[in-house]
Specification:
It is a single chain. By secondary structure, this protein is an all-alpha fold. 37% of the residues lie in helices and 0% in strands. Helix 1 crosses helix 3. It is globular and about 35 Å long. The protein starts with a helix and ends with a helix.
Length: 103
């Protein structure tokens, strides 16, 4: 197991934590300008993307660094999660079914 995975698994044992940037509690919406929040449209860092249609509730703080639990489940590190395109799968909010049918 690579070093990051071993560390991440141990870190997760501490349980959900407040966001280290904005202090938000698990399950709550990040404070505007938080550098940890992911964009629900493009999966990028919300602070830098500027996408329209972002849903802060979908991108709420889970208590864990975005992608950490997903990377552990996949057996990869966070960099591989982003490079491999997995971030879009986990962080982009799916459009509702009626919106997809209009296309």
């Amino acid at each position: 197991m690579n070093g990051w995975l071993a560390w991440a698994k141990e870190d997760v044992k501490r349980g959900p934590q407040h966001c280290h940037d904005c202090g938000t509690k698990p399950g709550e919406i990040h404070v505007t300008g938080c550098d940890v929040e992911r964009c629900s449209v493009c999966a990028g860092q919300r602070l830098q993307c500027g996408c329209e249609g972002h849903d802060p509730s979908f991108a709420r703080w889970t208590g864990f660094l975005p992608g950490k639990l997903e990377a552990i489940a996949l057996g990869i590190d966070l960099n591989e999660l982003v490079r491999g395109g997995w971030a879009r799968l986990f962080f982009v909010k799916p459009r509702d079914f009626t919106e997809r049918r209009k296309r």
